Amino acid sequence: MTVLLRSRLTPWLGFGLAAVLLFGVAPVALSGFRLGLLAKFVCYAIVAVGIGLAWGRGGMLTLGQGVFFGLGAYLMAMHLKIADAELRGDAVPDFMQIAGIRVLPAYWAPLASPVVTILAVLLLPPLLALVLGLGVFRRRVKGTYFAILSQALAAAFAILLIGKQTIGGSNGLNRFRTFFGFTINDPANRQMLFFIASAVLLAAVALSRQLRNSRYGELLVAVRDQEERVRFLGYDPATVKVVAYVTAAFFAGVGGALFVPIVGIVSPNDVGVVASIALLIGVAIGGRSTLLGPVLGAIGVAWAQTALSEQFPGGWTYVQGALFIVVIGFLPGGLAGLAMLLRRRRPGPPTPADPPTVAPAPVAEQEPAR
């Protein structure tokens, strides 16, 4: 009874502690600049939750999450540029004026509406993942081939963005002034953006936990370990994989949309192959098969990158590569897996010794009556 009660209370205690740290301690203990950095790392953590679900539980090495992250980011950035242009009374954003573009492209026009923008951020990345997932998993593409295909997709997406001058080209989109009518540079509004990102992160973790502990989560693990047996039992492994892949894309799109007003810029460098692999490294280091490992790993790796880049600008790439090699080669479960291993090897409380067995006293034989 005590063990069951503890297992039910532990997740709620964890969420409560995370909420206190994010909403209570961080705004007080960190400066405005550091709080903005933490908000950026939280956006990466939202993407990492989806990678942990698709890769850690589903076995799908998603090297192309930058595509969905970038799609959500660029949709939000395009809306913010249109809103800034309307405030100035211009027909097109500032970078288009410099490039000599005087008419807003047709695919930009719907994003002038905040409602359409939010719906596009929530729906387009999952829809793209649905189309790609059905096309890939129905053909039983998996393992290394799926990883290479997703990585090629990220590279193609970055090249497409660089060649599109109507969405900023290689410079990307930047210099945003407002976010749905609120001034971005206002410290109070920047703190509110951090709170929004933190709330989305907690909601993503809660949804991921619900999927992991459900019957679907057990089926996802079964597909990862024994796909042919699952197919023999009457389930469609492709459908199971698509659900996890679409969920990961949804998280990535939302994280990208929040990344734009928090950081103030989005470019092809944020959505290409290197960015996708960096997200994967954080998940691997934290522990891809656990619930909180991807979150802590993504935040920790991003923080380490910022801290080391300030001291050693050219050395972070080597440190990142070394960390990834060490984790993959010696700690497949990540740091969370190491903690679980140490917990299992810790000796438990001594069991009480059994009471000594007392042999029954022999019964004296009675003399027969004479």
TrEMBL record:
Residues 360-370 have a biased composition (Low complexity). Residues 347-370 are annotated as: Disordered. Signal peptide: none annotated. The chain crosses the membrane at residues 12-30, 37-55, 115-137, 144-163, 321-342. Coiled coil: none annotated. Keywords: Cell membrane, Membrane, Transmembrane, Transmembrane helix. Residues 348-359 have a biased composition (Pro residues). Its main location: membrane. InterPro entries: ABC_transp_permease, ABC_transptr_urea_perm_UrtC, LivM-like. It is a multi-pass membrane protein. The keyword Transmembrane applies. It is found in: Cell membrane. Pfam families: BPD_transp_2 (PF02653). CDD domains: TM_PBP1_LivM_like (cd06581). The keyword Oxidoreductase does not apply. This is Urea ABC transporter permease subunit UrtC. It comes from Pseudonocardia ailaonensis.
